[in-house]
Structure formats: structure tokens, C-alpha cells
Amino acid sequence: MKKSNQFVGLPIISIADGAEVGHVKSLVVNPKEGMVDFLTVEHADWQISVRAVPFKKIVGVGEFAVMIEDSTSIFDLTEIPIANELVQKKITVVGAKLIDRKGQLIGEATEFFINEDTGAILGLELSLRSKKVILSSEQLITYGRDLIVIKEEAQLNFLDKAESLLGGAALEEEEVAVSVEETNELSEFQEKQLKLLTGRTTTKDIYERNGELLFPNGTTLNKEDVRKAQEKGPAVLAELSMNVVG
């Protein structure tokens, strides 16, 4: 399970070519099916056409990249009428207001969670007046451009944690122990990244998602630079890792 914002900016890698063929620009939601059907692709060489990769063509979604078999998995939207139609509907989910069948305004969607294997939307993160809660997609009726209609009883089924969307309730002691172990493994992995990248030199300008230049071409990375990249997220770190020498 991944948040929608964990997809945006990830490099798209062609397994056959062993090369980066673009970045994830946005997610295209199919409101009727409650699925992410396509990922639109950003590439510096594509100035006019809009291209996308069908979710069913994705081999895997990891922390640092989206993997596809080869570049033929990416299509021009003019070749896929349904994709173009979905893009025009502009169903973004994030920012949509939630209203129940009785007309009561419940809150606003601040994030949504996706099954990275199928593209199915598992649930939403909602911002209420005093807190944030999780709502399973089973409580959703209609995805609209500005509004999402939910069942009347949805407020009785709010969840405290996103993990509950996978069928879990409150974390048991064993699960907490596993979580701590995973945290330690992540820390060790970050330390390995630090050792691997420190002292290497960038071969291109590395930008943040908002377009801000982080590391100019020719920057010799120190520990603070690598820590900064780690804080910016997996997309920036993946971009940096693939564009250094030394």
C-alpha cells in the first residue's frame, strides 16, 4: 500500500533497456471503478504530447522507481481514448470535499491510499475539524471532480491508522516489534546510502519536485548533501543515485 504522493516524481525504468524513460507526473483515477488506471509520464523531450503508462503494464512499484517491461508500455493519450477521457475529468481525489447521502459535509480528502499491485484505491485520509482520520473505500459511493459522496454510516467507520485498510485493527505487541525492526532496517539502509553517495560528483542538475535546484551539475556531495536528499524523499534520492560518478 502506498500514498498517492509516493508515486509522483518517481523515475520510470524500462527493464529491457536498463534506462530511465521518464518520471511519474500524475495519477489518473477511474471514478467508476475506484482505481488508478494510468500514470501520466513526464519527459524533457516530450514537449507537446501527453503520455501515460497503464497501471496494468507496471511490473512493480518500489521506493525508488516504477518498473515497466520496456518503453512500448508508454502510450500517447491520443492512442487511448479512455485515458484521455479520464484525464479530462480531472478526478484528483486530494482536495475533494466529502459529503454523505443526507447532504452533510463531513470533511476534506487530504490523501488516498493505493494497492501498488492493482491500482485499487483502498481508502482516504480525511481532514476533519479537529483531527485526521482514515476511511475505507468501501464507504465511498461516488468520486466527483470536487466532491466525493459517502455512505451515511461512514462516520461510524472512521479508522485511526492507514494500516487498518489492510485488514488490521490496533497493532498487537508482535506487530509493534516488527515495526521497530523495519525502522532499524530503514536506518541501516540510509546509512549505506550515506556511505555510497558521499564524495561522489553529480553529472547533471538535480531538482526538487517544485523546480528548486538542489545540487548543480558537478557538485561533490558531502554528508549534509546526502542527508538533505534523503529528507526530500525517494524520488529525489533515486534521481541523485542515478546521476553521480566517482
Counting DSSP H or I runs of 4 or more residues, the number of helices is: 4
Low-confidence stretches: 168-186
| Number of separate strands | 18
Share of β-strand residues: 25-35%
Alpha carbon gyration radius = 20 Å
Mean pLDDT reading: 84
How would you classify the helix and strand content by structural class? Answer: alpha+beta
N-to-C series of helices and strands? EEEEEEEEHEEEEEEHEEEHHE
- The termini sit apart by 36 Å
Note down, in words, how this protein is organized.
With 246 residues, this protein is an alpha+beta fold. It is 21% helix and 33% strand. The protein has 4 helices and 18 strands. Strands 1, 9, 10, 11, 12, 13 and 14 form a 7-stranded mixed beta sheet that branches. Strands 6-7-2-3-4-5-8 form a 7-stranded mixed beta sheet. A hairpin with a 4-residue loop joins strand 9 (97-100) and strand 10 (105-114). Helix 2 packs across helix 3 (223-232) and helix 3 (223-232) packs across helix 4 (234-241). It is globular, with a radius of gyration of 20 Å. The relative contact order is 0.12. The model is unreliable at 168-186 (pLDDT under 50).
